[in-house]
Amino acid sequence: MFYHSTRSPLPQVDSAQAVLEGLAPDGGLYMPQQFPAFDWKDCLTGSSQEMSAKILSALLPDIPDMPELVRRAYTGKFETEDLTPSVPVGDKTVLELFRGPTSAFKDVALSMLPQLLTAAKTVKGVTEDILILTATSGDTGKAALEGFHDVPGVRICVFYPHGGVSQVQRAQMVTQEGANVAVCAVEGNFDDAQTGVKNIFAACQGMALPFRLSSANSINIGRLAPQIMYYFRAYRDLMDAGRISLGQEVNFSVPTGNFGDILAGYLAKLLGLPVGMLVCASNANNVLTDFLRTGTYDRRRPLLKTTSPSMDILVSSNLERLLYLLSGDTELVSGLMEQLKEQGHYTVPQSLLEKIRELFRASYCDDSRGAEIIGRVFRDYGYLCDPHTAAGWAAAEDYAAQTGDHRPMVVLSTASPYKFPAAVLSAIGGDLSGSEFDQMGRLARLTGVPIPGNLASLEGKPERHTGVIPKEDMLGYVLGL
Ligand SMILES: *Cc1c(COP(=O)(O)O)cnc(C)c1O
Question: Ligand 1 center to residue 77 CA distance, Å?
Answer without folding.
Answer: 20
